[in-house]
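User: For a reading group we're discussing how well predicted structures match intuition. Take TetR family transcriptional regulator. Before you show the prediction, I'll give you the sequence so everyone sees exactly what went in.
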Amino acid sequence: MARHGWGGRPPASDAEARQRIVDATARCIDRHGVAKTTLSDVAAELGVTRQTVYRHFDRIGDIVGEVAAQGAEAFVDRLIAHLQGTTDPAEAVVEGLVFCVRTIPTEPHLSLLLQVGDSGAFARGATTADAIAYGAAMLERFPVDWAAAGITGDDLGGLAEIIMRLLTSLLQRPGEPPDEARLRALLGRWLAPALAPSRAPAGRA
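Assistant: Thanks. Here is the predicted 3D structure of TetR family transcriptional regulator, as structure tokens, for the group to look at:
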């Protein structure tokens, strides 16, 4: 790679270049917000041309998605640690949703995951296949025996979709977070009963 740009320290590989672009984008988002962060801003942050960035990412939305995905990995680890010892499916889902509603608005990079539009990590929101698959993979890490609860296969994906829809709705007004006690009561009344082992739907063939 040419030695101009990149602050005089060109990346040693394409993988390093991509990571430095992601890191630069995160800094731009922290300064300007996602709506005002452009590919030109990222290029300027790195001291390279727009064409250099385009060699690694097709559009700014793809970079923003990677920023969000990397932030989410650490967040999911924290969520799973928070849920340790909560083996009841209903309790785990309710507690997980409350934790997400409490935490995501305070961490801008995580909020990118659930944004709707071209700048969102899942582009078309919480009902895309990518978002649902991500949610199902997260549920599989819960300290819950889903099979024993009768939730397997497509049912786990359906649960993930409902959770992603609920979470997106609850986070649409980050300045007005729901009261946690009221949220727990609401989820406990209307969501938890569907996850009781005796009433959980059988897995589809």
